[in-house]
Amino acid sequence: MDELKGLLKRLSETEGVSASEKNPKDIVKEELKKLAISFKEDRVGNLIAFKRGRKSNRKVMLASHIDEIGLMVTSFDENVLRFSTIGGFDERILLGLEVIVHGKRPLKGIIGSIPPHFLPKEKQKKVLSIEDLFIDVGLSGKELKKNVEVGNFVSLKKNLEELLNERHSGKSLDNRASVTALISIFEELNRVNHNWDVYGVFTVQEEITGLGALSSSYNIFPDAGIAIDVGFGKQSGFPSEHHVELDKGPTITIGPNIHPGLQNGIVKIAKDYEIPYQIEAESGPTGTDASDIQISRSGIPTILVSIPILYMHTPCEVVSLKDIGRTTRLISLFISHLNVDMLKGDKYAT
Known about the structure:
CATH superfamily of the largest domain: Zn peptidases
Order of helices and strands: HHEEEEEEEEHEEEHEHEEHEHEEH
CATH class of the largest domain: Alpha Beta
Helix content: 25-40%
CATH topology of the largest domain: Aminopeptidase
Number of strands: 17
Structural class: alpha+beta
């Protein structure tokens, strides 16, 4: 678990806002070199790892998005910066956040606002909108314009903290937890036999466009696709029908975005090897790379495996190392058992 924790920490703490994912990709490249796994980057920036199977007539593609939500500088306001969001943000958590403005050099800053005493009465007891917030890096207006340009990316600044029971809290665990799992899957595949060729795609821009999954699945055109992402873990105040919890294993989704044969197949592997897992029903598109993979070209049989986290899209997301490890083991074993019968839809019985 120490190696897993160390890798998760490095990936979580680095910056890689959507459309600017170089830093986490560099870490992944280092890890793949250690494992002697070949890789390349495609035209849109996806990092694609490859491991040949014993019988190379079938392909499976694994996709974990490597980008994170962030901010972008939109204008100057005297000695502070106005900004917009990249990806989904809960505006309630923005005020007081520490950030890094990626100008000509990285600049540490905070998100601030005028004191509530000076706000109009109608705003004093409400959540402030982005229009009421700004980023302060401590420079004068003149120096600010020398170091920052409109369009510069801004990332959140947060260290990964260890909690009790092998839980960890930090930023961008959506989806660096799954990136950690995908790297670990290649490590496991070095120790097991698998017939199918394996493509592991660290996809870009999932949080904003879906470009990475759509373009890579079109080019690779695999026989099967596995999206690895994170999902909402149950917490106080959640509706009773939402039952997915941390420390109970990865979530296997069922629904129209999911191929029934592959879904039945991975559930069978979980049962056969006594790997804890959870089932979640999704009646429409999953809002993950699975949606884009499934509709690529003439259609790709796809499943979604998710790692439960708490407090998604905040700087204090929480994940269980146990769930990352179980996800790694489940998908590695599933790949080693992949067969064409699983592609026959609901004809494949558990």
